[in-house]
Amino acid sequence: MTVIKKDVAVLKNFIGGKWVDSLSSQTLEVLNPATNEEIARVPISTKEDVAMAVKAAKLASETWKKTPVPKRARILYKYHTLLSDNHDELARLVVQENGKSFKEAYGEVQRGLECVEFACGAPTLMMGETLSGIAEDIDSEMFRYPLGVVGGITPFNFPMMVPLWMFPLAIACGNTFVLKPSERTPILANRLAELLTEAGMPDGVFNVVHGAHDVVNGLLENKDIAAISFVGSQPVAKYVYQQAASQGKRVQALSGAKNHHIVMPDADFNKAAEHIISSAFGSAGQRCMACSAVVVVGDNEEFVKALNKKADELCIGDGMDEEVLLTPVIRKENREKTLGYIEKGIQEGASLIRDGRKEMEDFKEGNFLGATIFDHVTPEMTIAKEEMFAPILSLLRAEDLDGGLDYIRQSRYGNGATIYTKDAGAVRQFREEADAGMLGINVGVPATMAFFPFSGWKDSFYGDMHVNGKDGVNFYTRKKMITSRFDF
Ligand code: NAD
Fold first, then answer.
1. Can you tell me which atom of ligand 1 is nearest the CA of 456?
2. SS3 for 38?
3. pLDDT tens, 380-422?
4. How confident is the model at residue 7 (pLDDT cuts 50, 70, 90)?
5. Residue 9 alpha carbon to ligand 1 centre in Å
6. How many CB atoms lie within 10 A of CB 140?
7. Using N-to-C axis directions, what is the helix angle for 161-172 and 102-119, rounded to 10°?
8. Among 83, 104, 73, 28, which Cα is nearest to 445's?
9. For atom 17 of ligand 1, which residue has the closest CA?
10. Ligand 1, residues 236, 289, 292, 412: which to mutate, most atoms within 8 A of Cβ?
């Protein structure tokens, strides 16, 4: 963290419809992970910056909560058009600050658009319920209301999609919003704010405060924040959940993951290998739904061969290059940490069958690393237990499906799991017994779409109501019950 440099733009906060400088003079460099070139500086805002944003959001809330729901939705329709018109530009911004491939970034923008589409259904989604005649001449009705001001805290790996999991639906439900984007990928958030203003969103409904821990703590401590949506790593998710809950706030905290893919002996090995390679190494393994552990069922060397072959064919490089799948990790420190995991895997006795370190030498700049695969990994090894969030894949061996399901059960995480098979019985057993919230049947990244909840289990999620779908609507609204007597 250093003092402001003159030649690179320092991002502004967006508060009450205005672009304002942070009260802090501290900034952090924002780097392009493919080159480590500084592309912007992000202010490390203070709790006072947060208080200003919450004040603006609270003021806007008075009018916004009374704005008719279809009128709120119409602004989001316009927003959807603007986001679609700028689809390419938004994807390029994602590549520049996150490093993932353009194809992945384009897909991410699409996932974000779908969240806006879902939020446009607010007039239907916010409908209440009625029952005529709960007793003689007495009826009951339920109405939904917004909560007030909601805070959102987001990670580096989906700078477009994750904020859009939160604020379009929160706003459509009549809340106002303060977003704290990741300090490592903060640029896109400002573009999202610009386009929302262009769509006609009133001042103060959506605010952005850049920074790190102080901004997070400022949101958690602020009495005027009614709810917190968080997505990030497990220790921080748990901290945010506990702090927010202790302040009486509603909270949904999406956390880390370790996703197991079971390859059954009857699976199509080529297709399974293709899906696993793309899931494990796309976005350099930095996806909460990435496959990080494969359970090879039976004596299945043919599959392992197919997997290795596809890993050798992987194209590594800058995300703007069309051929590329394996892109850089977010920061040099993340690459260092990944190298530490490779060492640990070797020390703990796993067989290194593909060493991604050798490809590092081909890249002078950027945080590149090849695909690493360990075989004969056992559940007590560090690389089997921890979320590495890196291009490392662990292969575990099991005699049968029960053994594979056991590995999933032993994991502290339960975001996603996949099975590759044609056997209906195995599919059913997997569906019933896999201890995770988002399952794939022959699907490499079984991430749910905006109209379903993003449904992690165990230490992958803290809270009750997930993001998206009806859970999202329940999270961002509170209910009022009316009981009426008509024989008065
Ligand atoms: P991170 O936890 O480092 O950061 C997330 C947010 O928390 C950022 O805005 C950051 O500024 C803030 N933060 C970080 N440390 C903090 C602290 N000590 N106190 C207060 N605030 C703090 O996560 P990341 O590295 O940006 O993102 C990757 C993680 O996010 C992975 O663990 C991944 O699995 C997880 N993730 C989960 C999901 C999901 O749906 N479960 C989706 C995307 C990412």
1. 41
2. strand
3. 999 999 999 999 999 999 999 999 999 999 999 999 999 999 9
4. confident
5. 25
6. 15
7. 10
8. 104
9. 213
10. 236
Residues in the chain: 488
Q: What ligand 1 atom has the least distance to the C-alpha of 415?
A: 41
Record the tokens describing residue 468, joined without a space.
């998206």
Q: Is pTM beyond 0.95 here?
A: yes
Type of residue at 117: E
The response to whether residue 158 sits with its C-beta less than 6 Å from ligand 1 reads: yes
d(CA 160, CA 162): 6
Which residues partner with 142 through β-bridges?
129, 481
Cβ within 8 Å of residue 184, ≥6 positions away: 30, 97, 156, 330, 331
Q: Distances in Å between the alpha carbon of 111 and those of 72, 259, 309?
A: 21, 20, 31
What type of residue is 31? L
Q: pLDDT for 359-379, tens place per residue? A: 998 998 999 999 999 999 999
* CA dist 203 → 18, 177, 232 (Å): 8, 11, 28
Residue with tokens 């690393």: 369
- Residue 111 to residue 287: CA distance in whole angstroms: 14
- Could you give the C-alpha distances from 72 to 78, 105, 116, 286, in angstroms and in order? 10, 28, 12, 34
